[in-house]
Batch of 2 targets.
Target 1
Amino acid sequence: MDTMDSTILAPQVIVADDDELALMLLQDGLKGMGFQTVGCKNGKEVLLLALKRAPEAILLDDRMPGLDSVRTIKLVRIMEPIRAVPVILLAETPDRETVVRAIQMGANDCVSKEGSIHDINLRLQRAIKAPVKQPAPLFEQLKYFFHYDDTSLTLDIESEITTEAGKNMVELVRSLTGLMPVKFLVNLDKVPAIAASGIGYLSDVKDTVINCGGTIALSHVDLNRYQPNVRRFLEKYFQIEVQAVVEKNPG
């Protein structure tokens, strides 16, 4: 249920609850408090919408089917560029133990589902206005970003694919299995080089996606940039959806 209006400059919040009535009431209440909201029913939708919408905050039900709140928050915290988005957990009875657990999971706060909309509003305002605490980089050798456009989830790699970066990439993609099946693209446009020792990890990435029911292709590939053995490997084992546009020197 989408109540977002691009003409209104108001904080954008993704609200997730598999209870349709609770979701509707919460969205209506937040709209009355001046928020723009978009509703969803599971963790997968939360992540894909967050990548597409770049919200100011996420309000997440503690108990959802499929991709649960624990894994959803963990994935938010590894997915550039949404890693620093505040996440507030909605719990039935947020006692001290529940709040501590929520913070340990990576949430910014925990609030009662049975509480007033005014309390939820205050928690959201506080989380949004707090200084941004950018999480430390997860992988020293891998620079990456995600984006989603309704048809595919794209992983933009912006570092050389060496042995260590390849290991990081496999670990990253394996953590995304809860998002499959999707059409998964790996954008190599900004990859300066692929080491011979790194190409096997691209194969591991492909196997991971396919084993989870997804499809995978490479995009924006300039094959001439890479060594012949790497070029042959990419052409043989991957569908290349978009070739990079290479400008030719005049004359």
Note: Strands lie at 12-16, 36-40, 57-61, 87-91, 109-112, 144-148, 153-157, 183-187, 215-221, 240-243.
Target 2
Amino acid sequence: MNLHALRVFAEVASTGSVTRAAGNLLLSQPAATAQLRNLEQELGMKLVASKGRSIQLTPAGERLAARARQLFSLEYEMEREMNALKIGLEGSLRICATDLPGRTVLPAWIVRFKQQYPKVHVQLTRGSSRIAMERLLDHSVDIALICGEGPKDSGLEYITLLEDELIFIAHRDHPLAGAATTLQELMATAFILREEGSYTRRKLFSLCDAYEVPKPRTGICIEGMHETIEAVKSGYGVSFVPSLAVARELKSGELAEVRVPGMRVKDPIRLYTRIGEEPLAPAANFMAMIAPPLSQVGS
């Protein structure tokens, strides 16, 4: 069936006039009449009958007009849905993040995004930097937010969203709380160390190597940043954590920074995407919302 002719017929049925239908479709009246006659010939039955200066649908025309309304209504809905997906008004956004951005900045960013795009389904999962990279590479997620320097991979690129710092912290009643000391003295005190494979643990050991200082005397080894901070808050030892993770505790005075003069350890939060692949519209909209204008780009 010729859909163009069917559209002309549907407009004739809706307006009750070939002249008005032709005008609405930007056709000449003879062209609209020809399309109507072609459709009748194709179907082998009359669809409209003259009634004075107007027209009347035949029983076959009534049936076809009802189906045509359903068809073009579905066409409109399909176009609307596809356009919504194209510009990111609908669809899904899948994010994998390491612990720090997943617990701190991302929840507020996601709420802000949902306020702008309420029909987009957002899924946030957390994992190590290695897991986040793997999920991004196998297309299980659309973007990954990683704290610190993620594994080198030629298939991914990133923008730096925030520049946090790794700092030494202690309970407010600890002898070193708020004090300035040396890395060697810190490593000699009771230390709460993260699990093997942790980025902060690797960074701490790199500092020890760079300053030729023995590794920390481990008092406790804990898996998880949140659990590590809770142990420090309980009053035991010193640890090495992102400042963003303890911002509230530092502000309230529950925890205190232990400073090592001249030592500043950057801890960037980066957003990773796949190289050479345009992000889907929801991911692109999210990135545009959170990315600073002068983000540092790398791969």
Note: The CA atoms of residues 164 and 267 lie 5 Å apart.
